[in-house]
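For this section, I looked closely at a protein sequence along with its fold in token form, which I now present.
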Amino acid sequence: MIDRLKKLYDKYEELIAYAFWGVATTVVNVAVFAALHLFTSWNYIINASIAWFLSVLFSYLTNKAYVFHSPSKSVKSDFFEMVSFFGGRIATLLLEFVMLWIGITLMHQNQILVKITENIVVIAINYFWSKLLVFNHKDQPKQGR
């Protein structure tokens, strides 16, 4: 049984790590959004922008270190990696704004529930962007984990 679980973990290690850090990123995002919603009278787009920036920074650092194990080759390569990461996140931020606008402004739904639903969609898109475009280092051997 333990060997079977170990094989499953080894097979899906990256996806498990992404799910764990994705949940942590979502918690950061929703907690910041909720705190700003509760303690300020700011528009939900401002709240979402602040929540987005802090959660994307957290996500970049955790994805680089713990999910995709992306080594730092040079300042230049790290810069382009970060630009690509944030570029993908900007695209999903625009999607987030559209989903929030539809859910909150047009459909008059609960802001927090709309935010959670939108985050699920964004996490899935962000995984594929990160895996296929940002941290895709096919020319590098896998490092020991």
In short: Residues 34 and 112 are 7 Å apart (CA to CA). The chain has a mean pLDDT of 90.
